[in-house]
Amino acid sequence: MNWINVGNINDIPRLGSRIITSDWGKIAIFRTSDDQVFAVNNRCPHRGGDLAQGIVHGHTVTCPLHNWKIDLASGKALAPDEGCTRRYEVEVKEDGTVMLGVKASLKAVA
Ligand code: FES
Protein backbone atom coordinates (compact mmCIF):
# COMPACT_ATOMS: atom_id res chain seq x y z
CA MET A 1 0.00 0.00 0.00
CA ASN A 2 1.26 3.44 -0.94
CA TRP A 3 0.02 6.53 0.84
CA ILE A 4 -0.53 9.70 -1.17
CA ASN A 5 -0.93 13.12 0.43
CA VAL A 6 -4.19 14.53 -0.94
CA GLY A 7 -4.36 17.73 1.12
CA ASN A 8 -5.67 18.77 4.49
CA ILE A 9 -8.98 17.91 6.13
CA ASN A 10 -9.71 21.62 6.33
CA ASP A 11 -9.72 21.73 2.52
CA ILE A 12 -12.83 19.53 2.59
CA PRO A 13 -16.05 21.18 3.79
CA ARG A 14 -18.01 19.33 6.48
CA LEU A 15 -20.77 17.31 4.80
CA GLY A 16 -18.95 17.95 1.54
CA SER A 17 -16.28 16.47 -0.63
CA ARG A 18 -13.43 17.14 -2.96
CA ILE A 19 -12.34 15.27 -6.03
CA ILE A 20 -8.98 13.68 -6.71
CA THR A 21 -8.24 12.82 -10.31
CA SER A 22 -6.32 9.59 -10.69
CA ASP A 23 -5.43 7.21 -13.46
CA TRP A 24 -8.27 5.03 -12.11
CA GLY A 25 -10.79 7.82 -12.56
CA LYS A 26 -12.15 10.35 -10.11
CA ILE A 27 -12.02 9.61 -6.41
CA ALA A 28 -14.39 11.51 -4.11
CA ILE A 29 -13.08 12.27 -0.65
CA PHE A 30 -15.89 13.00 1.80
CA ARG A 31 -15.85 14.63 5.21
CA THR A 32 -18.76 13.85 7.51
CA SER A 33 -20.23 15.99 10.27
CA ASP A 34 -18.15 14.10 12.85
CA ASP A 35 -14.96 14.79 10.85
CA GLN A 36 -14.54 11.26 9.55
CA VAL A 37 -12.99 11.13 6.09
CA PHE A 38 -13.87 8.51 3.47
CA ALA A 39 -12.81 7.97 -0.11
CA VAL A 40 -14.77 6.17 -2.82
CA ASN A 41 -14.81 6.02 -6.59
CA ASN A 42 -16.92 8.98 -7.70
CA ARG A 43 -19.23 6.80 -9.82
CA CYS A 44 -22.50 5.62 -8.33
CA PRO A 45 -22.89 1.83 -8.73
CA HIS A 46 -26.37 2.37 -10.18
CA ARG A 47 -25.76 4.43 -13.34
CA GLY A 48 -22.56 6.30 -12.67
CA GLY A 49 -23.97 9.34 -10.90
CA ASP A 50 -21.56 11.95 -9.55
CA LEU A 51 -21.45 10.99 -5.87
CA ALA A 52 -19.44 14.09 -4.94
CA GLN A 53 -22.57 16.11 -5.81
CA GLY A 54 -24.67 14.03 -3.42
CA ILE A 55 -25.89 14.86 0.06
CA VAL A 56 -23.83 13.51 2.95
CA HIS A 57 -25.72 12.36 6.04
CA GLY A 58 -24.20 10.23 8.76
CA HIS A 59 -21.63 8.05 7.03
CA THR A 60 -23.59 7.78 3.80
CA VAL A 61 -24.03 9.84 0.66
CA THR A 62 -27.23 10.01 -1.36
CA CYS A 63 -26.63 9.95 -5.09
CA PRO A 64 -28.03 13.06 -6.78
CA LEU A 65 -29.50 11.14 -9.73
CA HIS A 66 -31.87 8.54 -8.29
CA ASN A 67 -31.30 8.79 -4.53
CA TRP A 68 -29.47 5.55 -3.90
CA LYS A 69 -27.72 5.71 -0.53
CA ILE A 70 -24.09 4.64 -0.53
CA ASP A 71 -22.31 3.64 2.66
CA LEU A 72 -19.05 5.58 2.61
CA ALA A 73 -17.12 3.07 4.71
CA SER A 74 -17.85 0.10 2.47
CA GLY A 75 -18.88 1.68 -0.85
CA LYS A 76 -22.00 -0.51 -0.81
CA ALA A 77 -25.49 0.66 -1.68
CA LEU A 78 -27.91 0.42 1.21
CA ALA A 79 -30.88 -1.95 0.88
CA PRO A 80 -33.10 -2.34 -0.99
CA ASP A 81 -30.59 -1.27 -3.63
CA GLU A 82 -27.63 -3.46 -4.50
CA GLY A 83 -24.25 -2.51 -5.84
CA CYS A 84 -20.86 -1.32 -4.73
CA THR A 85 -18.40 1.36 -5.70
CA ARG A 86 -14.70 1.00 -4.96
CA ARG A 87 -13.59 2.39 -1.63
CA TYR A 88 -10.11 3.49 -0.64
CA GLU A 89 -8.24 3.55 2.64
CA VAL A 90 -7.89 6.98 4.21
CA GLU A 91 -5.81 8.12 7.13
CA VAL A 92 -5.92 11.58 8.71
CA LYS A 93 -2.71 12.63 10.44
CA GLU A 94 -2.63 14.68 13.64
CA ASP A 95 -1.91 17.83 11.64
CA GLY A 96 -4.94 17.19 9.44
CA THR A 97 -3.06 15.82 6.45
CA VAL A 98 -5.28 13.39 4.55
CA MET A 99 -3.48 10.34 3.19
CA LEU A 100 -5.07 8.14 0.54
CA GLY A 101 -4.04 4.49 0.53
CA VAL A 102 -3.56 3.17 -2.98
CA LYS A 103 -1.88 0.41 -4.89
CA ALA A 104 1.57 1.22 -6.20
CA SER A 105 0.38 1.84 -9.74
CA LEU A 106 -1.97 4.70 -8.92
CA LYS A 107 -0.96 8.24 -9.81
CA ALA A 108 -3.18 10.89 -8.31
CA VAL A 109 -3.42 14.63 -8.77
CA ALA A 110 -5.09 16.48 -5.93
S1 FES B 1 -26.95 6.86 -10.72
FE1 FES B 1 -26.89 6.97 -8.56
S2 FES B 1 -28.85 6.40 -7.94
FE2 FES B 1 -28.91 6.20 -10.11
List the helices and strands and how they pair.
Elements: E1 2-8, E2 16-22, E3 25-31, E4 37-41, E5 55-57, E6 60-62, E7 69-71, E8 87-92, E9 97-102, E10 108-109
Antiparallel strand pairs: 1-9, 2-3, 2-10, 3-4, 4-8, 5-6, 6-7, 8-9
This protein binds FE2/S2 (inorganic) cluster.
FE2/S2 (inorganic) cluster (FES) binds at residues 44, 46-49, 63, 65-66, 68.
* Low-pLDDT runs: none
Calculate the mean pLDDT score and round it: 93
Give the CATH class: Mainly Beta
Helicity, in percent? under 10%
* Largest beta sheet: strand ordering: 1-9-8-4-3-2-10
Ligands in the model, by name, code or SMILES, are: FE2/S2 (inorganic) cluster
Derived from helix and strand composition plus strand pairing, the structural class reads mainly beta
**Continuous helix count:** 0
* Shape field: globular
Number of strands: 10
* Distance between the first and last residues' Cα: 18 Å
Integer tally of domains: 1
